Inverse folding.
């Protein structure tokens, strides 16, 4: 356990609802506000995920908090899980997993999930969250909490207990078809290192798809004398648009 942080244990409750049965007409209530259709409860599809996390964090320990982008990614993953078989039986890797919430959901349907991050405190908390949810995870699913430091050498070191330990694990990593990451774009040197790692991961093994959720943060910059989203601009420099332009 990590000693110098105070943990808040949060419960995230997910319920499934059937989109096809939503009324299409929009109606208004007595005050003229939209009367929105409410989700119907399907108790058999309901499950709780328990996450141990911090409410605030310092930069070196940002992974002890659950960030908004992680919740957005959870919604997306849940939608896919309940409306398709796209994630069934796959190998998935979460980068900069932090508390590992998205991975916990993926582990309900995937064959193998790698929760990867950097630093002992983050990885220990992540492992603790996997343990907290062990009853939720199918016994046939393999869940690995592993160090994958974007700034470190490649392939991931095997001399440390928390890195990719064996050749067979590394082979399994190559079989990953899904990469997910949330709120990993906030410092340009980390963005460079992340894309370097993504390039390496994606050039090994089978074809992979990355789903990345991020917050476009605006700050006042002395250099620009303006409110700018420099972190987002750095990210965009790595992404090609449909016409092939960066
Ligand atoms: C803002 S947190 C996001 C955590 C989680 N994905 C979420 O959204 O709740 C950024 C994550 O990137 C991880 N990270 C930072 N530097 C890293 C590095 N060099 N290699 C791997 N992960 C790193 C942090 O430890 C942290 O977990």
């Amino acid at each position: 356990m990590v000693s110098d942080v105070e943990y808040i244990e949060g419960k995230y409750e997910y319920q499934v609802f059937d989109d096809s049965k939503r009324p299409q007409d929009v109606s208004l209530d007595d005050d003229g506000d939209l009367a929105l259709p409410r989700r119907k409860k399907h108790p058999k599809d309901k499950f709780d995920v328990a996450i141990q996390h911090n409410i605030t964090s310092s930069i070196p320990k940002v992974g002890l908090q659950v960030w908004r982008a992680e919740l957005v990614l959870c919604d997306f993953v849940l939608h896919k899980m309940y409306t398709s078989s796209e994630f069934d039986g796959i190998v998935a890797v979460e980068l900069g997993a932090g508390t590992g919430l998205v991975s916990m959901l993926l582990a309900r349907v995937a064959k193998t999930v790698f929760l990867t991050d950097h630093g002992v405190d983050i990885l220990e908390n992540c492992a603790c969250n996997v343990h907290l949810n062990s009853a939720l995870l199918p016994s046939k699913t393999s869940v690995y909490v592993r160090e994958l430091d974007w700034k470190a050498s490649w392939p991931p070191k095997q001399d440390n207990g928390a890195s990719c330990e064996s050749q067979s694990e590394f082979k399994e990593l190559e079989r990953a078809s899904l990469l997910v990451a949330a709120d990993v774009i906030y410092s340009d040197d980390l963005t460079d290192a992340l894309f370097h790692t993504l390039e390496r991961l994606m050039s090994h093994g089978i074809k992979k798809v990355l789903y990345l959720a991020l917050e476009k943060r605006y700050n006042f910059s002395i250099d620009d004398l303006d409110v700018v989203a420099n972190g987002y601009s750095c990210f965009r420099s790595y992404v090609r648009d449909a016409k092939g332009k960066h």
